[in-house]
Design a protein that fits this description.
It is a single chain. This protein is α+β, with helices and mostly antiparallel strands. Helix content is 28%, strand content 35%. It has helices spanning 30-40, 69-79, 110-120, 144-154, and strands at 9-13, 16-22, 45-53, 56-65, 87-91, 94-100, 125-130, 134-140. It has a 4-stranded antiparallel β-sheet with strand order 1-6-8-7, covered by helices on one side. Strand 3 and strand 4 (56-65) form a beta hairpin. Helix 3 (110-120) crosses helix 4 (144-154). The chain is elongated, with a radius of gyration of 17 Å.
Length: 159
Amino acid sequence: MDAGIGVSVISRDDNIAIVYIKNPPVKMGIAYYTFNSLAEAGIDVDIILQTSTGHISGDIIFTVHQVDAVRTKEVLEKEFADSPETEIEIDTDAVKLMVSGVGMQGKPGVAAKVFRCLWDAGVQIINISTSEIKISMLIRTADAERATDALYENFDIVL
């Protein structure tokens, strides 16, 4: 097996903020209402994660560009004004790290190797999102250089 196991690109976005919507109201269409209000405000959203327990939806987590962080919070506070239990938190101490490649699809062990590299480097992963050809991870800003270096050292990627 080649050292890259299908990975062709390692990239990083240092200009992101993580948005946490904690305790959103449990109602049909909450994802639509949330992301429609952001779209109407012209805010670009990236990684989207939602937790759930059984049939009850839970917290919503996503990323935006850092320059949109304050406006995102304002839009969401307005959107959830009638839901006092809902909390909006913004975390700007984060970086999005991505490992991708068409060759990753159908190759077991890619995620394990990525996560092992970061573990060996002492990097804590905040959130993970995947597709067939990409692993996106949110990590702390202080870990960004160490994480990027560890991945380049362990995958055959030409800079």
